[in-house]
Amino acid sequence: MLSGLSFSTIAVLMVAAVLLDLWWGEVRRWHPLVGFGNLAMALERRLNREGPLRFLRGVLAWMLAVLPLTALAALLVHALAMPLAQSVAHALLLYFALGLRSLRDHNLPIADALARNDLPDARRLTSYIVSRDTTSASEIELTRASAESLLENGNDAVFGTLFWFIVAGGPGAVLFRMANTLDAMWGYRTPRLLQFGCAAARIDDALNYIPARLTALSYVLLAPGLQGKRRAWQCWRAQAPAWDSPNAGPTMASGAGALGVQLGGAAIYHGQLEHRPVLGDGPPATGADINRAWLLVARTTALWLAIACTVAAIMEYTHA
Questions:
Q1: Which pTM was predicted?
Q2: Segment 189-202, tens digit of pLDDT
Q3: Does any domain span residue 101?
C-alpha cells in the first residue's frame, strides 16, 4: 500500500470513518471541501480567459488547486511520529472526504416532499443537488434526478473515495475527492468551461475508471434475485457505452437495472434540452424509488466494508 498502512489497519480505519460520517455528518462550519470549492472558484475566475492557452491554464489551475493540498495532507500524516496519531490522521482525512450521510440528507427529503405531493418543495430540494433545470419538473423527472445523483455520487462520494483510501491512505482519498470536485465544477461542456475544464474532466475519468466499474459490479451483486442481477448486468453492458461519461454510465445503468426502473432520458441543462439515453429496464422511477436507491448505496457501502474486513482477517490469519 502506498500509505504504508497494513490492510488490517486500513479496514479498521475505513469502518471508523464511515461510522463517523454516518453519526456526525458533514462539518457544519469550515468544511475543507467547501473551502476547496471556494479556492477552485477563485482560480477559475482568475485563470479562465479566452485565448489559445485556455486548456493549459486549466491544467495549471488543476495543479495549483490539487497538488499543494495533497502534499500538505501527506506531510501532515508523515510528520506525526506515533503510529496511532498517523492512523487517526488517515481516518480523519477519509472522514472529511466521505459524503455518505450527505447523500442521505440531501435526497431523502426529496422523497418525503414527493410523498406529500409537494412538488414546489421537491423542485427546490432537487435544485440543490443537480445542475439540471427543475423549475417545472414533474415527479418522474425529479425522481430521476435524485436517483441518478444517488447512484453516481455513491461512487464519487463513497466508493471511489474508499478505493483511493485503500491505495494511498488519507492523502489518496483527499486527492480523489478534490479531483472529483473540480470535475463537478469545471467539467461542463459550456463555451466557458469546455477547454478550461477539459483536463479536470479527463483526470477525474482516469481516477474513477476502476472505482466506477467496481461500483457497477457491486450494484449487480446486490440486485434482488438472479433475474435482477442479470438485468443489472445487461443494462450495464448494453446501455453504459451510449452515455457521455465513461464512468457515470456504468454506475447509473447497473444501478437502474438493479432497481428495476427506468432512468435517464431528456433533461434541461443550462437552458438546453439534452436527449440522454434511457437507463435501466422497467417502469419510470417514482418517489419511493429514491429511498430504494439510497438503500442500494448504503448496502453497497456495507458490502465494501465487509469485504475489506474479511480480506484483512484472512491476511492476518495467513501471516499468523
A1: 0.95
A2: 888 999 999 999 99
A3: yes
